[in-house]
Design a protein that fits this description.
Two copies of one chain form a homodimer. Chain A is an alpha/beta fold. Chain A folds into two domains: 2-165, Alpha/beta knot, CATH 3.40.1280; 181-245, Orthogonal Bundle (Helicase, Ruva Protein, domain 3), CATH 1.10.8. Chain A has helices spanning 15-27, 44-50, 54-58, 66-70, 93-103, 122-125, 145-165, 181-197, 207-220, 224-245; strands at 6-10, 32-36, 61-63, 75-79, 90-91, 109-113, 130-132. The first copy, chain A, has a seven-stranded parallel beta sheet. In chain A, helix 5 (93-103) runs parallel beside helix 7 (145-165). The longest helix of chain A is centred in the C-terminal third of the chain and has 22 residues, at 224-245. The radius of gyration of chain A is 20 Å and the shape is globular. The interface between A and B is large, with 56 and 59 residues.
Amino acid sequence: MLSTIKIVLVETTHPGNIGAVARAMKNMKMHNLWLVAPKIFPSADATSRASGADDVLAGATVCETLQEAIGDCQIVFGASARGRTISWPEITPRECAEKVLIKEPGNKVAIVFGRENSGLKNHELDLCQFLLRIPCNSEYSSLNIAAAVQVVCYELFVASGLAAEEQIIVGDKGEESLATAAQMESFYTHMAEALTDIGFMHPAKSKSIMRRLRRIYNRVQLDTKELDILRGILRMSQGHKRNNDA
Amino acid sequence: MLSTIKIVLVETTHPGNIGAVARAMKNMKMHNLWLVAPKIFPSADATSRASGADDVLAGATVCETLQEAIGDCQIVFGASARGRTISWPEITPRECAEKVLIKEPGNKVAIVFGRENSGLKNHELDLCQFLLRIPCNSEYSSLNIAAAVQVVCYELFVASGLAAEEQIIVGDKGEESLATAAQMESFYTHMAEALTDIGFMHPAKSKSIMRRLRRIYNRVQLDTKELDILRGILRMSQGHKRNNDA
């Protein structure tokens, strides 16, 4: 279960940190590393700090956009130390681990970490359902990126042990699977179109309203059946418009 | 309570690691660092990796023997990844944190970390009451020393309950209040009307679709601002209809 969870690093500046992250992951039996537009990679610094976790580095997938990295994922967490003016649903690493491995197992999961100096940008957090926040000293809250990955992967490893001990049966609930990040993006694109069509918003001024709507639908974790219903509603409101315009 | 717990590093080779340890400690509100015969200290590498935790470095006590460092302590943990032929009483970081801060508070505590390559020697573990072992991949079990300190200090911080207190403070963001049940009912009535108006459903057959939509919006816990936005969308889709019908 652990090995499928993606650790995604966005625009990491120091390759040594990438190596340290690989080591932190392997220490906790995790291997699925994605690098979005790293400044320098591969690098001797990364390999040196990986200290025997070169297999994780060698297997890392490098891509250009965060969307590519998380496209097939159903639950996406964005790690952040900063408080945000718009409040995101926050979750601790322990809650995250319980959610992913015990309460809602079987989903494709990504955990996204931002730049060393500035973390994730708001438009990147818009792609995440949960803000992952490591409890820490409020007056000195910026963990080194590899240290943050270490804490999160440690909690996942501990929870996976608990899950195994408790012999949790993976949720055979006959339910619909959760929508992927790519399906949600396509939904948001459709929504923006439809809201423009019905005159609810102008494309030029749509940014903050779309962000608010993302907040709502990201945190609800739609399944594919629910997504179908909502898209049906969008289509009807558009079709209606077109019929009336004709 | 946290600030009295000593983190003791024995014969650390790389000064960068000492700096990273200082940062990891300060992130978790810990300050009491002891260095037993460090190879190089102070050092620019240590200060650079400390990244703002220079106060912890400046306050560190350097001494020649482990005995000096732990002399006044009542509970001493020795961190170790290696299995030992002689079996020591083992404890996890979580158990350690509970013991120190919840079950047996008020004792002077030291947590001892060994050399980067070879850990603690048996004669050093003889001075410890408990072997502290971080759960990890049995096939790749050597954490970076700063990563190990990070995990242990994180568990101590979580146990200290400071996290809970601080989250309460963070939570007071002047957010919108959550919608009441009555507001939600009024929203669902409006939604049913609007979905009928746009031709998405027939009133007679609306029961199961409305139940599904309730499942979605009930679990998202809308605040009043968000509810206003969604009702605005419903109104626009209806107004559009009425304008076109007129």
